[in-house]
Amino acid sequence: MINTCGICGSSVESRVPANWHPSKLARRVERDMQAHLRTHSLAELLRYEIRADLDQLPDEQRPIIVRDVYRQLLGSTGDDGKGFVLNDPDSQGVYTIDEVLGQIDLYRMWRSAARCGDPNCWQH
Question: Would you say the pTM of this structure is higher than 0.90?
Answer without folding.
Answer: no
